[in-house]
Amino acid sequence: MSWKSGSNSTRRPWSLATYLTLWYSLSAFALVLVATGYLYWALANNLDREDDQFLADRVRSVMQALESSPKDQSAIDKAINGSGSQSEAGQIMIRVSDANGRILGESPGFGTLLPAQALPKLANDSVSEIRRDFESDAKRSYRLLVVRHSASGALIQSAMDRTHEAELLEDYRRHLSYILGLSLIACSIGGYVIAKRGMRPVNLVARMAERIGSSNLDERLELAGKPAEISNLAETFNNMLDRLKDSFARMGQYSADIAHELRTPIHNLRGEIEVAMGNLRTPAEYQEALSSLLEETNRLSRMIDSLLFLARAEQPKSMLNREPVDLGAELARVRDFFEAPATEARVKLELADGAGLNVNVDRTLMQRAIGNLVENALTHTPEGGSVALSVQEGGGEWTVTIADTGSGISPEHLPYLFDRFYRADRSRSARTGGAGLGLAIVKGIVELHGGKVEIASELGRGTRVTLRFPRDSTKSNS
Q1: In CATH, which of 1.20.120.80, 3.40.190.10, 3.40.50.620, 1.10.287.130 is domain 228-312?
Q2: How confident is the model at residue 261 (pLDDT cuts 50, 70, 90)?
Q3: Do 106 and 96 form a contact (C-beta atoms < 8 A)?
Q4: What is the pLDDT of residue 291?
Q5: 141-148/323-326 β-pairing
Q6: Bridge partner residues of 466 (DSSP)
Q7: How far is CA 343 from the centre of its chain?
Q8: What CATH class does 320-473 carry?
Q9: Contact present, 144 and 163 (Cβ < 8 Å)
C-alpha cells in the first residue's frame, strides 16, 4: 500500500504542451466527426425521402385506379406494372389485396421475393400507413410502404429494392472511417505543432529566467513581440525581479550596517582590554576600565535584543499577548516616566485626555513603541519646545499621535526612517544617536497589531508620528 502511494506521488505530471495537444486534437477531431456524421445522416435521410416519394407516387397511381375502375382488372394490373415500376434506386413491386385478403394483383416475382406472410400488416383500421426498412431472406434490402385504401378497404403493399443504396451507404461509411482515422492522425499532429509553437514564447521566457541569478538581478525579460499573456507573465516576473533586487540591496546594506554597528563596540572592548593589559595599574584604574567594558557590553546586549525582537516580529502570532488596556492611562505612565528627562532638557511634555479608551493590545510592546517615539522626539526637540501625546478613536480605527516642535526631517529621509540602522543625521554615531533600530521596532510592533505608521515632518517646525490601528482590536469600555 505504501509503495503504491509513493509511486503515485513521484509520477511526473503531464506538461502543458501535452494538455494543449490533447485538447486541440480532440476538439478538431470532434468537429470533423460531427461534420462527417451530419453529411452521412443528410445523405441517408435524402435517400429515404426520395424512395418514400417514389413509393408514394406508385401507390397513389394504384389508388386512383381502384377509385376510377374498381372492377377493371386490366386497369389495376396496368397501374401495378405500368410506368414508374423502375426507379433510379431499384425495382418497385406492388401487391394489392382486398379487405378479405384476396390478392387482386401484384408485380411479377413479388410473392417469391417477398412472401405475403413476411410483410408487415396493418393492425386495425385506425392505422392507415406503415413505412419500414426490410431485409429479405436473400439478404436484399427493401423499403416498404403499406397503405390501406379508405374507400374500398384494399391493402396496397409496395416495396423498393434498395440493395444498391445500402451498398452505397456501406461504402460511404467505409470511406468515412478512413477519413476519420486520417483526420485523427492529422489533428494529433496539428495539435502537437500548434501546442509547440504556442509554448515557444513560454519556453523562451523560461530560458531567459534561468540565466538570472543573484549576481545579475539587473537583467530583465524582453516584452517586445510577445503575446499579451506572455507579456503579462514577463512583466510580472520583471516586477518580482525589481522586488528581489531591492530586497537583496536592503539585505546587503543590513548586513553591512550590522557589521559596522557591531565593529565599533567590539573595537572599543578590544582597545580597553589592550590598554588595561599594557601596564600594571591601580585597582581604581582597573575598575574604571571594567566599567567602560560593562558599558560597551550593555550596548551590545541592547543591540542584540533589538535585532532578535525584529527577527521575531516576522512571526506575529507567536509574540502578541493581548489584554484590555486603558490606552490613555498608558500614555500617562509614559509621560510620567519621561517627565524627568524632559524637564532636564527643558522640553514640555503634554498629554491630551484619552482616559477610558480600552483597547486589546500587548501592553509591554505598546509601551515600548510609544516610549521609543517619545524618546526620539525629546532627543530632536530643542529647549523651549514641546512634545504632545494624544489618543483618539474614530473612522473605524483608533490612533496614537506623538507630535514635537523639533528640528524636523528632510522629505528625502521620510520614506526610510523606519528602516533598520537608518539615520537621517549621518553625523550621529551609535554612541550619541543609538543603533538606528528604535523606529524599526516601532514599525514592527504596530504591524504586529495589524496597524500602520505614518509620519509627517517639516524642517524647523517639527515632526508628527501617527500610529493607526483597526477598530477590531478595540474593546468597548464596560
Answers
A1: 1.10.287.130
A2: low
A3: yes
A4: 83
A5: unpaired
A6: 401, 454
A7: 60
A8: alpha beta
A9: no
If you count them, how many residues does the chain have? 478
Cell 504591524, residue located: 447
pTM of the complete model: 0.47
Fold of the domain built from segment(s) 18-169: Beta-Lactamase (3.30.450)
Instruction: Of 287, 247, 289, give the one whose Cα is nearest residue 419.
Output: 247
Q: List residues bridging with 86 in a β-sheet.
A: 91
Confidence of residue 7 (pLDDT cuts 50, 70, 90): very low
Cα angle, residue 284 at apex, residues 279 and 287 outer, rounded to 5°: 85
Each domain of the chain, given as residue ranges in start order, spans 18-169, 228-312, 320-473
Strands 397-404 and 462-470: antiparallel
Spell out a b/e string for 336-365, using b for 16 or more CB atoms within 10 Å of the CB, else e.
eebeeebeebebebebeebeebbbebbbeb
| CA–CA–CA angle 395, 400, 404 (5° rounding) | 125
Q: What is the dihedral of CA 100, 101, 102, 106, to 10 degrees?
A: 140
3-state secondary structure of 109: coil
Q: How many CB atoms lie within 10 A of CB 104?
A: 19
